[in-house]
Structure formats: structure tokens, C-alpha cells
Design brief:
Blueprint lengths: L1 H14 L1 H29 L11 E8 L4 E3 L4 H10 L3 E17 L4 E10 L3 H4 L3 E5 L10 E5 H8 L8 E4 L2 E10 L11 E3 L2 H7 L9 E6 L5 H24 L3 H8 L3 E6 H7 L10 H28 L1 H13 L4 H38 L8 H27 L3 H6 L9 H34 L9 E5 L7 H12 L5 E5 L11 E7 L2 E10 L3 H4 L4 E4 L13 E5 H7 L3 H4 L3 E4 L6 E7 L14 E5 L4 H4 L4 E6 L4 H16 L7 E3 H6 L3 H35 L1 H9 L4 H35 L11 H25 L4 H5 L3
Parallel strand pairs: 4-9, 6-8, 15-20, 17-19
Antiparallel strand pairs: 1-2, 1-10, 1-11, 3-4, 3-10, 5-8, 6-9, 7-8, 12-21, 12-22, 13-21, 14-15, 14-18, 16-19, 17-20, 18-19
Helix pairs in contact: 1-12, 2-10, 2-12, 2-13, 2-23, 3-7, 7-8, 10-13, 10-15, 10-23, 12-13, 15-23, 15-25, 15-26, 23-26, 25-26
């Protein structure tokens, strides 16, 4: 029996070869997209799974009610107190800096080593990498201790067994206490070396409000996480408010309201990468991932719909076969099993083709997402095969039930085409397909408009031909280095101007502080600058004046602010110029001498933050954070100028260090990469959906027109013209398309409006995408169906009227 079923199946595949190709193509494309997105999701979920202590390690995130957001910053006294007073908190680790690099020297070699981390001494209690040499006990106990990876050990010493060896950098001698091997598995914590920021932590030891660190906590096994979160609020956050509020003369409750944090959140280590509200290493975008996954599933559903329609479209061709089989005793269950088997053969063939196509596309997909994914995870094969089984059941069972319900007498008489059995189901399926297609068209157009809007928006500054060069981090007095270099670099042919600004667009190296005026406090970004920096960047002055090198007060207690700062305090520009306020970064009042127009420093996704601009010599600590020099390059010979600057830098400034530079406009453009990728993926998915949708239209038009061929024959014999027949056959499809698009419009509006809410600078919801979706789908429907309708007008009258 099974062998006979296979013969019948392959006869029908060959007979309906076009339908077979359409089914294979649609399902292969759908399953390929599903597997690629599933691999991406699985890869994002796999971070830190290697860590044997992951079930006890939690990332600490603090909630600030006033700003309605989460932060990762914490101070040393706060985590110290958490360990002392909360029994469930057993240990903590602090992160001060990542991606740091130094020129390191050993007895035999000097080399620049990058990708280091500055952490607290308990780091290896949380991240027990495989130990190769030395010991983790007291590995980071002293200020002269360093632990290095096997890669760093080979780079500096040519071997890995180097515990006890000496390394010199940052004007100090360090002793290697441990050599470790980094895990091959995914982890955001893969430092090539780790060292204690001894002086920094020593200075911050008593600073309750010095939030210079990210942190993770080690909890006892089976600890009640929710209870620990509540204890952190009562025993740490409220205690800090009690300690610090007295200095400001306010109540602890008012302090919490003004400065926070007001609540805490603990997220397991292996969920931080994708699910954290905020992450010191940079949180993933779970929302976008879910959107992509949902869209990939929708494409599979569309492919399954096509399969259903094409299978039922063949009903009239197989009606007599089914009638004969029923007449000789075949049961309904046998017929259903046979049709399910035929569907499974198509689905499993599509699955095998999609595996090959996924392997073929994976290198490009990896490059697109900067990953190294491989098809070696059984979860990918298992879930994709489960999807195949679901598609088999859904797209096989409905046509199987439909076909097996044919009445033997009617089908053997040859008048099956008159049956309207299942017409509502098929119309509903087509409506669902067009709703999905309409959403993709509308969504794709809105995404394109939003990305184009961000790319063309006036950023409030001019970053063209401005080159930023980062200093190495080993200079004891970086501000003096900058002042010496700016005069020398100006002499290089092709350099038009030189300046320094801490809050440079496209950088993520900045600091914040609270700004207090009377009973109000806000958080503002600090922008230490040289006198000419804002003019250097073509920022517009709205009110007041620029900083002036001839005025001593401009390096003592004068500063400029942006419009966002003034708005946050609720002042007018004129009021701001008359006000003195106390900034959290200094112990003296400051006077505002100018208000500048807002300009984007971080990203167009978020609003411009309040920023204060002051000369770097106004505070002692900001002098030590002069970490770059910025050059305006003349446009006539940019490549030649860059080469001259590089040669000067490597020969006279930082010999042995990499020449770390970028152009500000190109660096800021990288903040759009995520949205460019979303735009690209949406465009690809749009193309896939439209292809599948066109195949779906072809499928259902084949089905319904096939069932109306006898009606066409009768009307044609009565003298109906081809044009009248074509319009009559396409009219129903056009009505279905119109209804489907009208249903999709509110759904698409809601979903795309939710997506746009993520952007501080966004387009108004446009009308054009909704109109274009309606027009495009109506035209496509008419184009596809009218071709099939025209073919129907050439029907053989004798064939369809011989029983009448």
C-alpha cells in the first residue's frame, strides 16, 4: 500500500510540476529564514553558559524613578555594604574599564597589548577561566599584580608557563600571578589581561556617590532573588540616602527622589547579554530579535498557506481518483494518511534544501552580524524539524480533510467543479496572507523613511574632515601632552585647526554628574573642552558668549550649557545667564556664560541630554581625562595629511603604540548600523514575502478559477466577451485584497507606532505607505489573477458542457 501511495504521489508531482516547484521554493525560503534567525537567537542566548557559577551570579541594575530608566553604575561603599549586611550576598566583582591597552615590556620583548580589563580583586571568583600557570588565590591582591591570557603570554614571552615573570607598563613593574585560557564559548568577558585599578579604587573607597563601576553579585545557593532585591533597596540605597542627605540639608526621602536609585533588579549572568534592562558591557536588543523571529515564522506560515491553496487547487484533477478509491473500499483515514505523506515528502525535501541553503548563506549572515556561528547545535536541527512537522500537519491536514470528504457518486459523475465546499476557508486563508503581505509592505516603507530621516537630520554640528586621535593611557599628565602637541601638530601641512572635547560625537567615553539649584537637581553630561572646541565643531551659540582665553574666570567657574540643560531646569535663556548653580563635580558654584544649540553626541535614538561645557583646567580631575586631540583636516589632500600625521605621531608622540584615530562623522554614522541592518533585513524579508504572496495569489486564483471553469464555459456559450469574463473572475480577488489591506492598516499602524516609540527623533506616522500598500496589492492581485483568468477564457466548451 505504501509503495502504491508513493507511485501516486510522484505521478501527481510530475503532473503538477509547477505547483510542486512553487511549494518547494516557498517552503525552502521560509525554512531557511527561520533557521538563520533561530541560529542568531540561539547564539545570543548562549553567552556565559560556560561559566560553572552562572546560577549564583547576578548583574545588578538600579532603577531611577525620576528618569524612568535603569543604570549599571555603582559605588564601592554600596557593594561593600551589600556584602556586610545582606546574608545572601556572598561576594561582588567590580568592572572599571574594558578594552584598555598598554605597551608592555619584558626582558626580551616590547609589544602593545590590547583588550585588557580593570577589575576588582575577586574577578576570578566569578570568572574561573581554565588556569594554565600560577594561582588564582590573591591573583589581583596587590597593586603590582597582573593576570594574563595564554595569547598575551605567548605574545610577550613566547610561552605560557610564565607565572612569576615581570612585565613593565604604565611606568610600573607588574608580576604575573596567573596565566589563564579564555573559553571558546560565547562570553562578553574575555580579557587578554586583568589588572586592579589600585589608585582609582583607593580614591573611590569612601565615595558613596562615585558611580565609576559596573558590578555583579554572588548570591548563596537557592537565595530568594526578589527578597535580595528588596534588601538592596532598604539596606543599601536607603542607607546611602541617609548618609548623603545630611550634607545637602535634605531628608533621605527627598534625596532618593532627587538622586535615586529607588529600586534594584538582579538578572542572572547568562541572561544579561540579551535580557538585562541595562548592562555594563552593552545590552542586547531582544525586542528586535523577537520581531525578526516572528517575521521568519510568518514567512513559513505564508508558505504553508500557499501549500494548502495549491493542494486544494488540484482537487478537481484528483476528484475521480478519490471517487474510484472510495468506490473500491478505501477509507477516509487511508486517504488522509496518503495526502499527509505526500505533503511530508515535499516538506522534508524543502527541509533538506533549506539546510544546504542555510549552510551556503551562513558566511554572509555571520559577516552581517559580526559573528562566528556554525551549524553544529542540535537545537537548530530539532526546532527546524519540529517546524517541518507542524507545516506538514497544518498544510497537509486541511487539504487532506477537504479532499477525503468528496462524495464518490458526484465525483464519478464529473460535476465536482460545481461544489463550493470550503470556499469560506480558502477566502479566509487568502485574506490572512494578504494581511501579512500588507504589513510587510507598510512596515518596510516606514522603516526606510525613519532611517532616511535620521541620516538626513541636522545633527547640530559639522563633523566632516574632523579627525580624532586617542591618547594612550600611560601619560601621567595628559593635559600637558595635549597642550604641547596642539602647537606642534598645527605645523603639519594640511591641518587647519586643533582642539579637544570630551563629549565628542560618536564616542562613548563620557561622565555625568548631578547639577543642583535650590530644590531641584538634574543629571548632566560633562563636556570638558578647549576654548575653541564648540566653534571648531560649528556648534551654534544661542545666547551669551563663548569661553574666552583672555578671561581668567573662564578657567575657574564659568561654563556653557546646551538647550536641553536649560529646558530641564525650566529656565529661559536669559534666566540661565543670571544663575549660579552647584555642579556635582566640584565644590564651588558655577556661572553660565552661554547657551548653545543642542547637538547630538550619542545617537538619534535618544534625546539630547543636558550637557555642561567647561575648560578642562577648571577641575583638577578633568585635566587627567584629556584623552584625545582633534584635528580639522583641509579637504584638498586628506589621505596625504593623514599619512603625515601618522608618521609624526608614531615617530615623535607614541612610539610602539597603535595610531588610534577616526573621523567623527564616520564614527557617528556607526550609531546607525543597527538601523541599517534592520532596514536591510526588512527589505530582504519584504522581497521574500512578496514572492511568496505572488505565489499565493497564483495558487488561489488557480483553485477558484479551476472551480469556475464550467460557469465560464456556460457564460461564454451564451455570448459573454473575454473582458467581461476576466473582470468577473478577478472581481472577487480584488474585494478580498481590499478587505485584507483595510484590516491590516490598524494592525500595522499600532505595531509600527510601537517601533517608532523607541526613537527620540522620529517621523510622524506617514500616510503614503498605507496607500502604496493598498495600490500595490490591488495591482499585483489584478496582474496575477487576470493572467489566469485570461487563460480560463480559452476554455474548451465541449469538455465542460458534455454532461449538461
Amino acid at each position: 500500500m505504501f509503495k502504491n501511495w508513493l507511485k501516486i504521489a510522484f505521478v501527481n508531482y510530475r503532473k503538477n510540476w509547477l505547483s510542486t516547484i512553487i511549494n518547494l521554493f516557498g517552503l525552502t525560503i521560509g525554512l531557511t529564514g527561520f533557521m538563520l534567525i533561530l541560529m542568531h537567537w540561539n547564539d545570543e542566548e548562549s553567552f556565559e553558559k560556560w561559566n560553572p557559577k552562572k546560577d549564583q551570579i547576578y548583574g545588578l541594575q538600579s532603577y531611577y524613578k525620576k528618569d524612568n530608566n535603569y543604570g549599571t553604575g555603582i559605588s564601592i561603599p554600596m557593594v561593600d555594604r551589600a556584602v556586610k549586611v545582606i546574608p545572601e550576598v556572598k561576594d561582588y566583582v567590580l568592572f572599571h574599564a574594558a578594552g584598555v591597552g598598554y605597551k608592555m615590556s619584558t626582558r626580551n620583548k616590547t609589544a602593545y597589548q590590547k583588550d585588557g580589563m580593570l577589575v576588582s580583586e575577586n574577578f576570578f571568583n566569578f570568572f574561573p577561566f581554565k588556569l594554565i600557570s600560577g594561582s588564582y588565590k590573591n591573583a589581583l591582591k596587590g597593586e603590582a599584580s597582573i593576570a594574563i591570557s595564554t595569547t598575551t603570554a605567548k605574545n610577550l614571552f613566547g610561552k605560557t608557563n610564565v607565572a612569576g615573570e615581570s612585565i613593565k607598563f604604565d611606568n610600573k613593574n607588574y608580576v604575573v600571578t596567573a596565566v589563564y585560557e579564555l573559553p571558546e564559548e560565547n562570553s562578553v568577558t574575555k580579557p587578554e589581561f586583568v589588572v586592579l585599578p589600585f589608585e582609582q579604587m583607593k580614591n573611590d573607597k569612601e565615595g558613596w556617590s562615585t558611580f565609576n563601576y559596573g558590578s555583579m553579585l554572588m548570591l548563596s545557593k537557592n537565595a530568594d532573588v526578589k527578597a535580595v532585591q528588596e534588601k538592596i533597596v532598604t539596606e543599601v540605597y536607603k542607607y546611602r540616602a541617609k548618609v548623603s542627605s545630611g550634607e545637602l540639608g535634605i531628608t533621605p526621602e527627598k534625596y532618593l527622589e532627587l538622586y535615586g536609585p529607588s529600586d534594584s533588579l538582579l538578572t542572572p549572568l547568562d541572561e544579561m547579554k540579551l535580557h538585562a534592562k541595562a548592562y555594563w558591557f552593552g545590552a542586547g536588543d531582544f525586542k528586535t530579535l523577537m520581531i525578526l523571529f516572528t517575521l521568519s515564522v510568518l514567512i513559513v506560515i505564508l508558505s504553508a498557506i500557499n501549500f494548502i491553496n495549491l493542494k486544494t487547487a488540484q482537487a478537481s484533477q484528483r476528484a475521480k481518483e478519490i471517487g474510484v478509491r472510495k468506490a473500491i473500499g478505501s477509507t477516509k483515514a487511508n486517504l488522509i494518511l496518503q495526502f499527509l505523506m505526500e505533503t511530508f515528502i515535499i516538506c522534508i525535501t524543502s527541509y533538506l534544501l533549506s539546510l544546504a541553503l542555510t549552510e551556503l548563506l551562513l558566511p554572509s549572515f555571520n559577516k552581517f552580524y559580526d559573528k562566528e556561528m556554525k551549524m553544529n547545535d542540535w537545537h537548530i536541527f530539532f526546532y527546524s524539524f519540529v517546524m517541518v512537522l507542524l507545516v506538514t500537519l497544518i498544510s497537509g491536514l486541511i487539504p487532506a480533510m477537504y479532499l477525503s470528504n468528496f462524495k464518490a457518486i458526484e465525483t464519478l459523475k464529473g460535476n465536482f467543479a460545481r461544489s463550493r465546499h470550503g470556499v469560506w476557508l480558502r477566502n479566509g486563508i487568502l485574506t490572512l496572507q494578504i494581511i501579512i503581505s500588507s504589513f510587510f509592505i507598510i512596515g518596510g516603507l516606514i522603516v526606510n523613511q525613519q532611517v532616511k530621516y535620521m541620516m538626513n537630520k541636522d545633527l547640530g554640528y559639522n563633523g566632516k574632515q574632523i579627525m580624532l586621535i586617542n591618547f594612550s593611557e600611560n601619560d601621567p599628565k595628559p593635559w600637558l601632552k595635549y597642550e604641547r602637541l596642539k602647537n606642534e601638530i598645527r605645523k603639519i601641512n594640511g591641518v587647519a585647526d586643533v582642539s579637544f572635547g570630551e563629549a565628542a560625537p560618536g564616542t562613548f567615553r563620557y561622565s555625568n554628574a548631578t547639577m543642583d539649584y535650590m530644590d531641584k537637581s538634574i543629571l548632566a553630561q560633562l563636556g570638558s573642552i578647549d576654548y575653541n572646541y564648540l566653534q571648531f565643531m560649528d556648534v551654534k551659540l544661542k545666547k551669551g558668549r563663548w569661553l574666552n582665553p583672555d578671561l581668567a574666570s573662564d578657567t575657574i567657574n564659568n561654563l556653557l550649557v546646551n538647550e536641553a540643560f536649560v529646558r530641564k531646569f525650566g529656565w529661559s535663556d536669559d534666566e540661565a545667564l543670571k544663575i549660579e548653580f552647584r555642579p556635582g563635580f566640584d565644590n564651588k558654584p558655577y556661572h553660565i556664560v552661554g547657551v548653545v544649540k543642542d547637538f547630538n553626541v550619542k545617537s538619534l535614538k535618544s534625546e539630547v541630554e543636558p550637557i555642561v561645557f567647561f575648560h578642562y583646567r577648571e577641575t583638577d580631575w578633568k585635566r587627567f581625562q584629556v584623552y584625545n586631540i582633534q584635528l580639522k583636516i583641509k579637504p584638498d589632500d586628506i589621505d596625504g595629511t593623514v599619512k603625515r600625521i601618522k608618521a609624526y605621531w608614531q615617530n615623535n608622540v607614541e612610539r610602539g603604540y597603535p595610531f588610534d584615530y577616526y573621523f567623527i562623522d564616520k564614527q557617528f554614522a556607526k550609531t546607525f548600523e543597527t538601523y541599517h541592518k534592520q532596514q536591510t533585513l526588512f527589505t530582504i524579508l519584504n522581497a521574500m514575502v512578496l514572492m511568496v504572496a505572488l505565489l499565493g495569489l497564483f495558487a488561489l486564483s488557480s483553485l477558484m478559477i479551476e472551480q469556475k471553469l464550467k460557469d465560464v464555459a456556460i457564460r461564454k456559450s451564451l455570448g459573454a466577451s473575454d473582458g467581461t469574463l476576466i473582470f468577473g473572475l478577478t472581481k472577487q480577488f480584488l474585494w478580498i485584497t481590499l478587505i485584507a489591506v483595510l484590516i491590516s492598516i490598524p494592525i500595522s499602524y499600532y505595531l509600527m507606532n510601537e517601533w517608532l516609540k523607541d526613537f527620540a527623533y522620529r517621523i510622524d506616522m506617514p500616510v503614503l505607505p498605507f496607500v502604496l500598500s493598498l495600490v500595490a496589492l490591488l495591482l499585483l492581485t489584478f496582474a496575477v489573477v487576470s493572467v489566469k483568468a485570461y487563460q480560463a477564457t480559452k476554455v474548451n466548451l465541449v469538455k465542460y458542457l458534455k454532461y449538461e
